[in-house]
Design goal:
It is built from 14 helices and 14 strands. Strand 7 (166-172), helix 7 and strand 8 form a beta-alpha-beta unit. It has helices at 12-20, 45-52, 68-82, 98-109, 127-135, 160-165, 184-197, 220-226, 241-245, 259-272, 278-289, 292-313, 339-350, 382-399; strands at 32-33, 92-95, 118-122, 139-143, 145-146, 152-153, 166-172, 200-204, 235-240, 253-257, 326-330, 352-353, 355-356, 373-377. It is an enzyme of class 2 (transferase).
């Protein structure tokens, strides 16, 4: 067996199941889960129609590069969304969701034969970053986050000796779990550091289309162009249809950026066996070509966040994020920072599931930045999310007496 597999930690949701094992939730309440970030709005009919209307595609092997018309649709979306000019033949690849691509990109980029091969991960973070680094033979280094800036990553907290060993960094903007969007000046800093030390930037942007203010979140490729980096040197952006179009089961997204990185990534993927099914390609083309369902989806999230956030902010340290579909909430002092106790007791008393924040982070520099917080995924319909929020308020108020 690959000995590196033993270094992988249990996924947060497995830890959550273990935490709740043996607990019998209050039967007076129907179960409501805010634990898993799985979109639950209806899949648009146009995507379903494209999927079922292309079943003849099952009779042929797909190419790893994807159909030219799909890559053109992806390029067109980048032009509409960010004002970018991206070559669909050399700077775009379809992928089977951003998770698969984040993992396989690391296997393509990293060279574990170099002493101290390092991957920078935000902290808290999406656990695929850590697993991808470990299974590529590199060491993850967890970058501290700044609670004063909505848990934005504190890149200035990385020592120069760590930058010198870094081969890849994962950026998540909008962030998971806190929803912070990285501003242009921080992109400028990372690009300058990349030029100095030669590392690749993987920009995970799967939450980019769920935002609450008039200005859409800045993307990595967009930041590069604003700073005159039209070749996207050492930059790969990853995005997905899962959250944007409510199709997590479709497993569809794309990567775009530096053609000098896309070429070896295509070679790796050809051997990896990760070509996108022709019927998924057809459904993806329909999704990327349509924006109306995205606007409607965003409006539903805005409605529920506007209803839920004021309820919870009265009893927890929580505010409207920049983007994404999570609330990242500080628990009351009564729990003495134990986000696991809060989650377990809430589940027992009110049958509501929330994810302990410490499960989404690692102790680094003597501190777990997720401790004392919980992540709530507002993915259900508005009424169910409001009911969950009301139960959480009741739970907290009951604990204060």
């Amino acid at each position: 067996m690959n000995p590196l597999l033993s270094r992988l930690q249990p996924y947060p949701f497995e830890r959550l199941r273990q935490l709740h094992a043996g607990v019998t939730p209050n039967p007076a309440y129907k179960p409501i889960s805010l634990g898993i970030g799985e979109p639950r709005h209806a899949t648009p009919q146009l995507i379903k129609d494209a999927l079922t209307g292309s079943l003849t595609g099952l009779a042929s092997y797909p190419g790893t590069l994807g159909e030219p018309k799909l890559r053109q649709a992806m390029s067109d979306w980048l032009a509409r969304r960010y004002g970018l000019k991206v070559d669909p033949s050399t700077q775009i690849l379809p992928v089977n969701g951003s998770r698969e691509a984040l993992f396989s990109l690391a296997q393509t980029i990293l060279d574990p034969s170099k002493p101290g091969a390092t991957v920078l991960c935000p902290n808290p973070f999406y656990q695929i970053y850590e697993g991808a680094a470990l299974l590529a033979g590199a060491e993850p280094w967890f970058v501290p986050s700044d609670p004063a800036r909505n848990f934005a990553v504190d890149w200035a907290g990385v020592p120069e000796a760590v930058w010198a060993k870094t081969q890849l960094i994962f950026v998540c903007s909008p962030g998971n779990p806190a929803g912070a969007v990285m501003p242009l000046d921080e992109w400028k800093t990372l690009f300058e550091l990349s030029d100095r030390y030669g590392f690749v930037i993987a920009s995970d942007e799967c939450y980019s289309e769920i935002y609450f203010r008039d200005e859409a979140p800045l993307g990595g490729l967009e930041a590069a162009v604003k700073l005159g980096r039209h070749d996207f040197k050492n930059l790969i952006s990853l995005t997905s249809l899962s959250k944007r179009s409510n199709v997590p089961g479709l497993r569809s997204g794309f990567v775009a950026g530096d053609a000098a990185l896309i070429k070896p990534f295509l070679l790796y993927r050809t051997y990896h066996g990760s070509a996108m099914s022709p019927i998924v390609q057809a459904a993806s083309l329909a999704a990327w070509a349509d924006e109306q369902h995205v606007i409607a989806n965003r409006a539903m999230y805005r409605e529920k966040f506007a209803a839920v956030t004021p309820l919870l902010s009265a009893v927890m340290d929580v505010a409207l994020p920049d983007a994404g579909f999570y609330l990242w909430a500080g628990i009351p002092e009564r729990f003495k920072g134990s986000d696991t106790a809060f989650s377990r007791e809430l589940f027992a008393a009110y049958n509501v599931v929330v994810l302990p924040g410490s499960y989404l982070a690692r102790e680094a520099l003597g501190h777990n930045p997720g401790a004392g917080r919980v992540r709530m995924a507002l993915v259900a319909e508005t009424a169910e999310c409001v009911e969950a929020a009301q139960r959480i308020v009741q739970f907290i108020q009951s604990q204060s007496h």
